[in-house]
Structure to design on (124 residues):
């Protein structure tokens, strides 16, 4: 058991280090705010909650949504409204928690279960 946990931790740390090296080479400049600022933390939390906390596919769906939203906001607002993206993330996070507590994947599963549920047949 301990050996398996150690193996998973080493693989995770290696992939994180590789991702950080590629990220640093891509931007050619790193500071604490770009790597672990409030915007990054908010995007990570939004991706997990919007996608679905209780499913394996949820964070992947949430990260695709978050990356798409990030690029759309960057193109739409440009440099006119610097803090608008964080405000929109915060509002969407609150709306997702209120209206979709199981996330996008959970909502899709719920719709699928409703469609597959057998219709009640009236007794004669």
């Amino acid at each position: 058991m301990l050996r398996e946990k150690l193996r998973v931790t080493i693989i995770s740390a290696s992939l994180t280090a590789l991702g950080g090296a590629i990220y640093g080479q891509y931007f050619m400049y790193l500071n604490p705010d770009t790597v672990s600022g409030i915007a990054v933390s908010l995007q990570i939390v939004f991706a997990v909650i919007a996608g679905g906390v209780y499913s394996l596919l949820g964070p992947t769906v949430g990260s695709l949504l978050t990356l798409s939203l990030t690029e759309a906001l960057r193109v739409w607002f440009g440099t006119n409204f610097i803090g608008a993206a964080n405000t929109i993330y915060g509002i969407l996070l609150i709306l997702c928690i209120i209206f979709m507590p199981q996330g996008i994947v959970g909502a899709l599963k719920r719709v699928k279960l409703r469609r597959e549920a057998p219709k009640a047949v009236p007794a004669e």
